[in-house]
């Protein structure tokens, strides 16, 4: 079992920045690709970013590419999402997720590829 706990959400003005953290329990963190998703009110959950097991490869949805950066610290069992130049349309609940240790393929951009999910953290961007 893996437990994921997100933190770092909040209210920020447009153009501002936030850094989300995702702390993972257990000893398998470094064996799992990680991803961030978000869900805005009335909308489906959408993929935001993914990172490989080592952190050497990353992948972003077009709408955040160049503004968001996903990273990880395997020694600290933590994944991060640095969000810069935030826009009101980035307002959503942000979730981190982990694939299974046997996951194959890149990038894992579909929610069904993920085995474990955090509870989410709210990000609100005011205009």
Radius of gyration, in Å, reads 13 Å
Number of strands: 11
Low-confidence stretches: none
Mean pLDDT: 97
Beta-strand percent range: over 45%
Outline type? globular
- Major sheet description: 7 strands, mixed
Order of helices and strands: EEEEEEEEEEE
What percentage of residues falls in helices of 4 or more residues?
A: under 10%
Number of helices: 0
* Ends apart, CA distance between termini: 40 Å
Structural class: mainly beta
What does this structure look like?
- By secondary structure, the chain is mostly beta strands.
- It contains no helices and eleven strands.
- Strands 2, 4, 5, 6, 9, 10 and 11 form a seven-stranded mixed β-sheet that branches. A four-stranded antiparallel β-sheet has the order 1-3-8-7, with no helix packed on it.
- A hairpin with a 4-residue loop joins strand 7 and strand 8.
- The chain starts with a strand and ends with a strand.
